[in-house]
Amino acid sequence: MEKFSKDWRNDIYDVFKNIGISLVSHIPDAGHTPLIDLCEKDNNIDVVTLTTEEEGVGLSCGAWAGGKKSALLMQSSGVGNCINALALPNICRIPFLTIVSMRGEWGEFIPWQVPMGLGTPKVLEAMDVKIFRVDYKDEVGDTVNAAANFAFNTRKSAAVLLSQKMIGAKQFKNG
Amino acid sequence: MIIRRDFVNKLLEDRKDNLRVVSGIGTSTWDLMSTGDEKNNFGFIGAMGQALPFALGLSISQPDKKILLITGDGDTLMSLGSLATIANHPVSNLTVIVLDNESYVETGSQPTATAGKTNLELIAKGSGIENTYTIFERTDDYKVLKTIYEEDGPSLVVVKCKAESTPLIFPHSFDGVTAINRFKDTM
Predict the structure, then answer these.
(1) pLDDT of residue A5
(2) Among the CATH numbers 3.40.640.10, 3.10.180.10, 1.20.1200.10, 3.40.50.970, which is that of A8-167?
(3) Can you give the residue ranges of every domain in chain B?
(4) What are the pLDDT digits (tens) for A29-87?
(5) Which residues, numbered 79 to 138 in chain A, qualify as contacts with chain B under a Cβ-Cβ cut-off of 8 Å?
(6) Predicted-complex ipTM score
(7) Rounded to whole angstroms, how far apart are CA atoms A141 and A148?
(8) Which residue of A48, A92, B103, B107 has the smallest Cβ count within 10 Å?
(9) Residue B161 and residue B157: Cα distance in Å, rounded?
(10) CATH architecture of B4-184
């Protein structure tokens, strides 16, 4: 019998509720879908669908200036779109939290996902974003909690990387 | 053609207490700072393209305040997708003023796309921001004030401006932490 009884996305949602996240922005990824659904059903969480992930950085920063805590959900390919935008939370010491579902690292079928998957931790570190990686489902809640506390207590940027091994590689069939 | 600095100063001459103003990178920030050292202002000096989503986040989190973003055509062209995001997550308290001088004045007045075939009013309308119009003359100042304080947003006003470089008026601090803390404390 497994140690965890529910979907790990519920654990992320529980952390969001505990720390008072009331704005969630995203470019959807299949790995995040159950979490996005939970947030959309919650009347106290505003969900914003973006056109590009970098918008989520500015959105989070503006929301924080106005007193709201938020999180950006994206897949690893979106991290590349955010690089210059990450200068904003960095220079203003605005807490910034993102939850990234990894692609291109474990059982990936689509080769186009590999370059940004490999580059994701490097570009985050280059922009002074602290990385919290999760490889096991029963560590998701604690890790997201640690990352959120790091971001909001120290006014720094934090990224949780959900490993593709844990999420499960998307399977494609031709025809 | 409108003289941007005069226009911005007139617009904020008798500003109300519930107004918070954000400016986009470059000349728009110098324009905003020329209206005085005001705690209710926050000016971008970098992170081009981020002022639009920042203003949306602020509008969502401060629904009882009027939020005004003053930015340029260059900054807006970098985040056209944000117009769609704003339109589809409508915030009634947000007005965006695009000071459109059809050029990147800060870097030597190279022409932007709006000097060519691109029309930001049509893009905003096509993105779904219904309350969108362009002004060419200062006779429309009152109309813009009404949009900011009285009309339901989101709204976007394209202000066709003369392309000229103006004196640089710096914010009270270039330090982002000092600037954002001061601004946040007014909420």
Answers:
(1) 53
(2) 3.40.50.970
(3) 4-184
(4) 888 999 999 999 999 999 999 999 999 999 999 999 999 999 999 999 999 999 999 99
(5) 84-85, 87-88, 91-94
(6) 0.96
(7) 11
(8) B107
(9) 12
(10) 3-Layer(aba) Sandwich (3.40)
